[in-house]
Design goal:
- By secondary structure, the protein is of the alpha/beta class.
- The chain folds into two domains: 65 residues, no CATH class; 164 residues, 2-Layer Sandwich (Zincin-like).
- Helix content is 37%, strand content 28%.
- It contains six helices and 13 strands.
- It has a four-stranded mixed beta sheet with strand order 1-2-4-3, with helices on one face.
- The protein is globular, with a radius of gyration of 20 Å.
- It starts with a strand and ends in a 6-residue tail after the last strand.
């Protein structure tokens, strides 16, 4: 990948068939990425980055104190999040099909067969997250289809490492990051609205911002809250 360094900050440069330059700083590490039109030369990219240096540093500082979640070991009393609530894991070994149960507001019970390895425990919990997240999405999409007067032809849940959500405008299809199962429902709703608005406006331009302000006036607050929540060791973001 093409990369430049400005004031000791490494910046990834991605060339695309686009009209404008797009700058982003991604949590949790403060990674900087500039998407530029194919015809823009390196000197122009550098000048743009220098002009935005203060903005870049301000956003990187936001992520420095953000809580990190280390790789999970799926053991007793380990922290796991579901719909914005922190639970302590309780491993229950039983010679029966695996399952996950929220015992109360404190514990999440993971039933596994004896000697089940970490990778398998991870898979069991991940599939439970997928099922639970898929229960939340349809009602939210239906609600916002009526508000925005737009139809979503298809939606899917998948693990993504760079975005909370994405969309295919031509096919009117949206994808939701599986990690949102761990976030409060208002974070999930914000991402769904964000992607549905993209079906009306492709770019993050004034028209897009107008729609977000009109239909979800507190979207900036929701975006900030989503960024403040604990993030995994992986480098996915929005």
């Amino acid at each position: 990948m093409e990369q430049i360094t400005i004031s000791n900050i490494k910046i990834d440069v991605v060339r695309k068939n686009i009209k404008n330059i797009h700058l982003a700083v991604y949590p949790p590490t403060g990674r900087v990425r500039i998407a530029v039109p194919l015809t823009v030369n390196e000197d122009a990219v550098r000048l743009f980055a220098i002009s935005k240096l203060g903005w870049i540093k301000r956003h990187q500082r936001k992520f420095e104190g953000q809580e990190r979640i280390t790789p999970r070991e799926y053991k007793n009393r380990e922290s796991h999040y579901f719909q914005g609530t922190r639970y302590l894991m309780n491993i229950i070994e039983a010679d029966a099909p695996p399952k996950v149960i929220l015992k109360n507001k404190t514990y999440i019970d993971l039933y596994v067969r004896p000697e089940t390895q970490v990778e398998k425990r991870h898979k069991i919990l991940t599939e439970w997250y997928r099922v639970e997240l898929k229960k939340q999405i349809p009602a939210m999409i239906e609600k916002w289809e009526k508000v925005l007067n737009i139809k979503v032809n298809e939606w899917q849940v998948k693990q993504m490492k760079t975005k909370w959500g994405s969309c295919n405008i031509e096919k009117k299809r949206i994808w939701i990051n599986l990690e949102l199962a761990k976030r409060p429902d208002y974070c999930l709703e914000y991402i769904i609205v964000h992607e549905m608005v993209h079906l009306m406006e492709r770019l993050h331009n004034e028209r897009f911002l107008y729609y977000m302000d009109k239909y979800l006036p507190n979207w900036k607050q929701l975006k900030t809250e989503l960024s403040k929540l604990p993030v995994s060791h992986a480098n996915w973001s929005y």
